[in-house]
Specification:
Length: 340
């Protein structure tokens, strides 16, 4: 059976209970279990399947490979008026972000702009939870992380970059901030993995096989190399993310992360850079006036029938809170087997 077959409906509470049970069963400490499970619940709630409970399989594998410090106690270092560093001590990235966020926000309020570097973390997640949380608190936010070297540069055939996501959040009046979050590869690797599990071909342009030929075979692209989005533009953005969320914060590039992995096929290990800007500090008593002008940009997009990024997520969120989520029966069986 592939994931394309039967689906099973779960409530979000059932998703949370399943995620917490699997993570606890694999020895993760309680604080990390809560933080990591919540990320997966958010992924399912917003119908982002590549970063929902599918990641339990990835976490279980990464933990069994010995690549996560299960009871890591992150340490927050206040290193400059506008800089905070959180040493994740080899654990997952969610708890370090929770611990560093209040410090980052206080610094951004004081200085107008501040950054947090999360170091020595295992990263398997989407970045929109971070920028959405900061934008809900009134900040303009950016987040970046390298991953494993899976992606070839434009014009090349050998992996250099990670799938290196880039996320942005902008505070808005009304219920939801403006948020986008995407890989600088044509698509997240998790999406190709889901195609492989479902036995579905991938579109041309997502990857090349080990001989450098364009392929629609998900497994061949996973063995070969993924491609950047937008050719040289995605390639340059991926390079920027390697630099600013790698060496700039004293952490690994994607090539170093995959070398450290040593073919364990565990989640990427390294750092994440998050930047927060406080419009109130930047603009003083003109902040409300200028943020109101920003609304015209969104209006000009939606008034012609185009949609804003995250609109699909926010709509899914309303639906799944009431009706729950649908997950492939085969995926659910594979996850439940982790509890045996
Ligand atoms: P997509 O290519 O699906 O792009 C996602 C973004 O584009 C979302 O903000 C989405 O909004 C928006 N979007 C999609 N279609 C439209 C449209 N027609 N009009 C306007 N906006 C649109 O995602 P990716 O495959 O590139 O990445 C998926 C996730 O994988 C991300 O959350 C990323 O953080 C994560 N990731 C994590 C990595 C890591 O190392 N930790 C590595 C790589 C990826 P909406 O959600 O509403 O559809
Ligand atoms: O889907 O590319 C991906 C990914 C890498 C790390 C976490 N997600």
């Amino acid at each position: 059976m592939t994931d394309a077959a039967e689906k099973v409906r779960l409530s979000l509470e059932e998703v949370r209970a399943l995620a917490e049970a699997v993570l606890s069963r694999h020895g993760l400490s309680e604080r990390h279990v809560k933080a990591v499970a919540e990320t997966m619940v958010a992924g399912e709630r917003d119908e982002c399947a590549s970063h929902g409970i599918y990641r339990l399989l990835v976490c279980a594998h990464t933990i069994k490979a010995g690549k996560v410090a299960l009871d890591a106690e992150p340490v927050v270092h206040d290193i400059a008026p506008a800089l905070v560093r959180v040493d994740a001590k080899g654990g997952y990235a969610q708890l370090p972000f929770q611990m560093g966020k209040p410090v980052l926000e206080e610094k951004a309020r004081n200085c107008g702009i501040a950054a947090i570097g999360i170091n020595n973390c295992v990263h398997f997640a989407a970045l929109w939870p971070e920028v959405e949380a900061l934008a809900r608190d009134g900040f303009v936010a950016f987040a970046f992380t390298p991953s494993h070297a899976w992606v070839a540069p434009a014009g090349g055939t050998r992996p250099v970059f990670g799938t290196n996501p880039l996320a942005f959040g902008w505070p808005r009046p009304g219920p939801h901030p403006y948020v986008f979050d995407f890989a600088t590869s044509a698509v997240a690797r998790g999406e190709i993995e889901l195609h492989r599990r479902a036995g579905k071909p991938i579109p041309l342009g997502w990857g090349i096989d080990a001989e450098g030929n364009p392929t629609t075979d998900a497994a061949a692209a996973l063995e070969g190399a993924m491609l950047t989005f937008g050719g040289h533009k995605g390639s340059a953005l991926a390079t920027m993310i390697e630099l600013i969320a790698g060496p700039l914060i004293g952490d690994m590039t994607s090539a170093e992360s995959i070398a450290y992995d040593d073919n364990a096929k565990a989640s990427p290990f390294g750092g994440e850079l998050i930047i927060a800007i406080d419009p109130a500090r930047f603009l003083g008593d003109k902040a409300a006036e200028h943020l109101a002008r920003a609304e015209a940009v969104f209006e000009n997009i939606v008034s012609q029938g185009a949609r804003l990024p995250s609109q699909r997520r926010y709509e899914a969120r309303e639906r799944t809170r009431v009706h729950g989520v649908e997950v492939p029966a085969k995926l659910l069986a594979d996850i439940k087997a982790l509890l045996d």
